[in-house]
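Budget justification, computational time. The allocation requested in the original proposal was used primarily to generate structure tokens for proteins on the priority list. As evidence of use, we reproduce two of the resulting records. The first is shown immediately below.
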Amino acid sequence: MARSHHIIKLLKGQRGGVAIWFAICLPVLLGCAALAVDLARINLTKVELQNAVDAAALGGSSSLSNTQPPPGPSDTPYNWSAATATALDLARSNSANAAPIHDALIETGFWNIQNPSLGLRPSAGVPVAGDVPAIKVTVAISSTQNNGPLQLFFAPILGIANSNVQASAISILTGAGGPFDYAIYSGSTSNNLSINGSTYNIKGSIHSNKNLNINGSSITVTGAAEAKGTVTTNGSNIDIGSTLPNDQRVISMPDFSASIAAAAAAVNQTYTGTKTINGSSITSDPIYVQGSPGTITVNGSSFTTTGTVMADGNISINGSGVASLSSQVCFYSKNGSIYINGSNYNLNGVLYAPNGSVFINGSQITVNGSVVGKQISINGSEFTIDRTDYPITSITSLPGNHAQLVE
């Protein structure tokens, strides 16, 4: 009997101990619940916000190439206002925490792909080598934005009633890609690409859909020398980053002519026969010369805008020209060839002859961008082409431009 009484007394003591342990562990259990439930809710809301800002930034940067509406200045290469409006509309078309997004911070500017640590710099600034147009979208649920802050379920027991949640994304407008990724691109499958001369500095890669021959002296190619067939060099002081013969890729050259013709017609810049253009006459809107012979002559002078100049026939660029860092012009011969003749010529942008040749003859000629054609002929001395430091982004009339998230 005494033994039974002792057992009952012991059990009663254990029940009291369990109650004490439960009281001690309760805050820990509630804390775990807060972590499991509230942190999951915070993370879900963050994912919703991130999806919204990603979509808004991508859509906004895609709109950077929209035609600048009146009364916008004709020399504005990027439509910052259209990008801002598009990004804001897309952000507001999304929801987070079961409620529509109302507030979003939209910032536009330049992103340097060579030095991302510079961050997003204001669009009113002067772009430098490596800059591309960019847009940043930030959306937050806080005490002042989007009916926040986020109210928590279990965390208030621990003294945490709510939380601010924020997400941001940066998207850039990148170049057309494909053949435009190269400093020099020759699309012919039946004709070799031959580069002849001295003192050539090619920053970027070269591609030939046939054989590639590099002949001369003091020639530097910082990137790769690619060819579907052979890659040969003859001369002295020829320095190539890497060679890639027997590259079986045949990269096609896209046809942008229909969209450029339509864009030129929309701004009344379509001409028939022949046209002479001075550098100062190049605008942000496309220029198209159609018909027969459908030729363009460009006389060298400074230009400070961005645009595409397209002809059905040949394009001849004469004299000396200077382009500012903020300018990139695409000279596009739809069915003919492009000729650069002279010396001391500087061009920022693209020479594009998908069905003809690009002829560069002379000395001290610099192309900051890409030379792309069915055939390429380069002869002379002191020739520089820089594809590495000058991303092809300002050719806003080329629909090949695409948006890309960078942060």
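The second record produced under the same allocation is shown here.
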Amino acid sequence: MVNSQPLESRRESIRDLLDAELISAGDRLRFARSRVGEEHIATVSPEGRIVLPDGTEYDTPSDAAKAVAGTQVNGWIVWRTDANRTLASLRNQLRDTTTGTAQSDTPHQYLSEISEQLEAGESVSVTVRELLRHWNARSRGTRITRRIEKDLASQGIRTFPHFRDITLDSLVRFAIVDVEETSSPTNNSALKMHTLTSSEDENEDSDPPQNGLKVGNLASALGGVTSVTRDNTIDQAITLMQIDDFSQLAVLSPNRRNLTGAVTWKSIAIARHINPNATLRDCIIDASEISYNQELVDVLGVLRSVGFVFVRNEVNEVSGIVTAADLANAYGDMATPFFLIGELDKLLRHIVSSHVPFSDVVALCDPSGSREIKSFDQLNMGDYERTLQNPDAWNRLNTKLDRALFCKRLEMIREIRNDIMHFNPEDILSNTVEMLRNFLRMIRLNMPA
């Protein structure tokens, strides 16, 4: 019997692939485990179950894969048809058909082509910005990041480094996910970030994780590093620092792989004060280093004590430097709109509480009483918007401003506020600070105190 529930309201199943004639009853499925030299065979039943050679049947691909592998595995990406199509790629094709999207224009088709190139042994690299373009995105908010991660996982591929952890114009290269490695209990956390487990893949209603800034999101972290070796002279080091107005240099081994220390204006001054004939070796101090995919907030302590830290990229090369100034700029860009939003919140709360009865506000913002609003302090930006959209409440303000235009801009600012509170700096418009300041100025000039 065909499932009559709308496909977009539930998770797809093997039965849906059968109904769409993307797979047929009796078709053979293969699960190759190259690392252990095994290949498991299964067939598709007329009821849409996965049947193993011993006759046991499983409702989901992941349950069948776990039964033969003995560990949690994403069955949608490991089971392949004789045409070498993963069940995930067939599911993606079904989704494209259901949404009426031309297959050649979908992210799924794009990733399918990438997968074919990787299977053929080709190397594929793109900038993060180019990758996002295939999802009609310009920034990496939590939801679009989650969507791309799930689409990558459904094709059994990942990006290296993770597209979230570097700048928009940095390159990522695609790689095929090693199923055995992702299911291994000794697997490292970096790889786990690139791969969804079967339970995550089959539960698409879970909330997306909130992503903090990574060291690699700073341009200076992957922008290259100016260095000297222990055999250079102090004059050479000073010249390099003055040419680009640097305060420190990395001291690398001749092959540029090993970081042996750093040279700074302060270390040069101290060495020469002790010995006017000091060499560059006398000026070298210890240097801290971190990985590009480390949380930026974790670097605060190091930068507070030493002022700079060198960064290693995904292939363990010294790729850049992060200074206290870089960190101040990164958080400063987010802090200004954050504080402006806070000021706007206080101002709107004062205006609403001064002119609109509390009972009216509750009736507009919590008519069912489920939120149990007890005071104006519990109101949020959405509540101000709902209140001021009401003509009676708006008229109490006795302002000449146009209500519809005011509330339209307030709606835009509410959405910006959500991005700011989730610390997604790329989702914040470039003119956000100017927009917030103008809105605050307009309220102060045209609304009663």
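A brief technical remark on that second record: Confidence is low (pLDDT under 50) at residues 4-10, 182-210.
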